[in-house]
Amino acid sequence: MIITLERVKDGTEALVREIQGGRTLRQRLARLGVHPGDKLRLIRTGHFGGPVLIEVHGAEVAIGCGMAQKIVLEVSESS
Amino acid sequence: MKIALVGQPNCGKSTLFNSVAGYKSIVSNFPGTSVDFTLSRVSFNGESFELVDLPGIYSLSSSEPDERLARDYLLQMKPDAVINILDASLLGRSIELTLELLELKIPLVVCLNMIDEAERKGIRIDVRHLEEDLGVPVIPTIASLGQGIPELFEATIRTARSGQTGKSFYCSRDVENAVAELTILIGDQTAEKLSVPGRLLALKLLEGDDDLERKVREEKPDVIPEVERLRESLSYYRGRPADVVLSSERHSLALNLFEHVAVVKPRTKSTGRDRIDHFLLHPLWGYLALGLVLLVFFNLVFGFGKLVEQPLLACFSRFSELLQARLGQESLAYTLVEGLVQGFSGGIGIVLPYLVPFLIGLSLLEDIGYLPRAAFLMDTIMHRIGLHGKAVIPFVLGYGCNVPAIMGVRTLGSQRDRFITAVLVTFIPCTGRTTIIFALVAFYVGPNAALFLYLLNLVVIAAAGKLLSMLRPEASPGLILEIPSYRLPRPKAVASKVWFRLREFVVVAWPILIVGSVLLGFLEHLHLFEAVNRFFSPFTSGLLGLPEETSITLIFGILRKELSIIMLVQALGTNDFSSVLSQGQIMVFTVFSLFYIPCLATLAMLRLVVGLRAALFTLVMTTTVATVIAVLFRLFYLLVA
Description:
The complex is a heterodimer.
Chain A: E1 2-4, E2 13-19, H1 23-31, E3 39-44, E4 52-56, E5 59-63, H2 65-68, E6 71-74
Antiparallel strand pairs in A: 1-6, 2-3, 2-6, 3-4, 4-5
Chain B: E1 2-7, H1 13-21, E2 38-44, E3 47-53, H2 65-77, E4 81-87, H3 91-102, E5 108-113, H4 115-120, E6 123-125, H5 127-134, E7 138-140, H6 149-162, H7 173-193, H8 198-207, H9 210-219, H10 223-238, H11 242-261, E8 262-264, H12 272-280, H13 285-327, H14 332-368, H15 370-384, H16 392-398, H17 402-408, H18 415-425, H19 431-445, H20 447-471, E9 480-483, H21 491-525, H22 529-543, H23 550-559, H24 561-572, H25 583-595, H26 600-610, H27 612-640
Parallel strand pairs in B: 1-3, 1-4, 4-5, 5-7
Antiparallel strand pairs in B: 2-3, 6-8
Helix pairs in contact in B: 3-11, 7-8, 7-10, 13-14, 14-21, 16-17, 17-26, 18-20, 19-20, 19-24, 19-25, 23-24, 25-27, 26-27
């Protein structure tokens, strides 16, 4: 299933399929370890348009809602 | 010998620096606090060297100011060795920076810090294996406990002597071909002239580094079209932009290396951190907890301050009376000495009781790791005023002192966010302005009126934020922030941070306070106040309806906010303000003090961080806002009375 980051449920594990943004956004995410192909786990969905909290490569990273909308994930059907 | 410390934000770099350098650098558990680098002379085993603490960086690119600063330092100052500190519990991610540092061809030592935390997370690292793979010494440490530090510096000095620079890591064939071609095109001479190793330069140009591209364009403009051609061909064959190709290559090299040297036990049940965060980041409990934290925090600080302030001030006023009796009220000597005492006691009696507990509390919150969580919670609300969650940190800092708050603005991603946040921070009532609110409004009008002023202040900040984001409509890049593990604050780290921030007040502001106070006493002795007051009279008494004697106090408030209240005693000739000022006048005076021109130190910092234009803009904006609100208050009291 293809879905953007701000719409997945708590606890979902997924692969980053694409980052739909310019070079600046890609680089800012890459700095904190989010690259296409990486596995991440959603710890907490954003509430009231707030940021989402994810775990990626052992670190926890908060990502604003606007940015999360640009991160396309691939969630396997079984989970 | 020069040794530089390089590492990602929050890897314990500053803790390590402090453990050997003493109270020089500022440590914190908020990513990106040490924005300027700090250096210190260190002797170790009879060897003396200069240790430089560079800002925390995630990579060697140039898009963030911190990263550019660190990179420029490494390239231009050419330290004899670099200590690359890694958070061992985040090895897979941290090692990407190591791969870039290896390309600098500077003797390198890897410090695997927080090795205990990695073990707690179930990550076992084969240090010897990692050493072999990287070709540089790898030393495991626990900087907060001082473990492994002697071994680290021994290895560093040895490496600096031997000049061991480690291995290069090679990307896929197509990328390496492009790098090789570009290295030849650039030529050794140009690379040397820019003091960037050829291979690193080629890699960075392919990745699209604006800063290096500009420099190469100046030196050898004909290379640029070739760079563009190579980039295009890379992205054509790989089906993704060249910068993604390069960063993915580095990323997969890092992950391979990580898998080669580390064993990760699968995640067991939820950890203590998860449970705490489940509560502290909860959409309901989280906000309640945040409110409670702030409530307890401010109550403790001001409770303590009040307890200490009264007896201290009483002590000083008894001393003044003694002086007056000894020297005679009209003598010049008395005027000068009294000014000295006033300035001195102003520092000790008003600011230190509030500033010290505030800074200790703030450092504790910072080191525990609560501030990034506050940023997480506040993101939605900050969005309403055109900013994002990270900006809440400077705001909270601003309640202590606007100066460190404006320094903290540097951690924000875009120039726009830095500008808006810095300007808004100058509206936050710092301890100085808080003193005025408490001493005047809370004391003479009532605590609820004081609370009302704080709320009004927030409303004004929100409105100003809205207005400023309309002036700078570019979208804020949004929040992206690492939420670090909770850590036990170390007394030494807290103490050094408190001292670092306090020093600014003691060294810069306090002398100004004392000199200003003496100067004011002197002016008074010469009866020059009246001239100044008369000059500003149309504004202060005409527009604001205050006694014209208050003009001089407001002018001194620009030196330091709390001077306004100290000088008010002198200017009005009484300690009991209600005998000379009506409630309305007290409110108008306080409101004006709350919003008008920030103090000199803040203005200087604004100029430094966001530029002269921003500082001038702030000057005009704050004066206008203060005047408008003060006049509204005057009208309100005129109507009520």
